[in-house]
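dumping this here before i forget
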Amino acid sequence: MEIFETLLGLLAACVVLALVARRLQVPLAVVLVVGGMTLALIPGLPTITLDPQLALVLFLPPLLQASAYRTDWAAFRFNLRPILFLALGAVLFTAAAVAVTAKLLVPDLPWAAAVALGAIVAPPDAVAAASVLKNFRIPKRLVVILEGESLLNDASSLVLYRFAVAATLAGEVSLGVASLSFLLASVGGTLVGYVLGRIAMWVFTHLEDTLLDILVSFLAGFAAYLAAEQVHASGVLAAVTCGLVLGQQQHVAFTARTRLEMGAVWSFVEFVLTALVFVLIGLQLRDIGERLEQYDLWHLGGLGVAVSAALIVSRFIWVFPALWLPRALSRSLRERDPMPPWSHATVLSWAGMRGVVSLAAALALPANFPGRDLILFLAFCAILSTLVIQGTTLGPLIRRLGLSDPADDEGINPAVTPKAIDARSQATVAAVTAVAEKVGNLSPEQAAAAEDLLRELRQRAKRVAHASDHSGPGVERLSARLDLRLTAIEAARTKLLADHRDDLEHEEMAALMAELDLEEQQIRVAMGER
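structure:
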């Protein structure tokens, strides 16, 4: 009962902290971590111990699957080279930089233990990145690279981490074995995720039930993760691959109702899990502090600052050459993909927030691991510094650099961009053609209904044609029409509630209100609202 009450209390705290973050216009992850730290310092509150294995299994699969589900596969594939440069190269380079820094400052720490620390803090976290990036408008390619990196880098860091732990405890390590293990874990995880994703798609075609579809969509990610871990493959890559498969096939396998309801359910679960992750990270402060009472406070603070600085600076040292050197050495690459501006490299370097993976990996260290408490403290410092310092300054940095994708500027309605209008025009023509082809095979009553629909579709096509004048009145007319439709829907809803609440059956009223709600949601999605 105490656990249940504590969970409810944490969820209530998440609501309050989310409102604070919105009021202060600060990334939610930052407020949640600081809020968790504050709660940890309140005397009398129960101590919450985060089981690392439970944290990885409970939080990672659904959050990674959800991020992969929304991934633009074409953009991900086009940017695969810079993504791998970061997901593999940056992780190894950062781990090495942190390991050297820790070894120089703590000579008694074994080299393998220092490498384990580097592997723990090296990968930027998918959950942290999504939590911070969604509040800002930056060029789409930067978002694709950052989210793609955070989806893949956990595999490389966790393999390095496992071998560093084994080397520390056993006193030996083989680079060849580590490389082969990484290859097998990556290929195996990807294969398991793809197979489980295809099995889930087959199950969806036989269910034809929205609630069961949503349940299976959750089970698929957990099944992929656990199955991959059972065969010593990468559960992270399995969950990501499964999410990619489901995302690519969603418009084939799911009905419109399933997509709408699944989106609502997943959004809720993502918020709850993300909020709990970062609050729980902050709550670990008390437990960490109690085990480090024998250390000098100033010495600990200096170590935390040094490791965090090495973590942040090493990413800059890697990102700029990784983006520029391949183009400088390859003319064909330079012509196909021109050199990005230095501002893009700066944002990629600064947007390296750490989160639940780093903390869970640190907590998973064996109890007899050399320097375990110190490593856990330094990992916490890395998470806190990157979230608070980088998370809160990323927005001002973007504004300072003048980075703004024209399609994402405030005030631009996604429904009336030139590409959206052209696509809508082609879709309307296809609709008119499909109905016109069926008129000859219909009964007189059905043909009359088809003619009414054709007139409506042709009027819609005419309005879209007017809107194709992208520079002025057509776009304004379409935007005004969408706004007026919202006004009309609200008036209809008010009329139903005011005059027909008593004379309509509950089921009748619910059906009419659902119809209006769906129409309103359709318009708001077209207008780019949430």
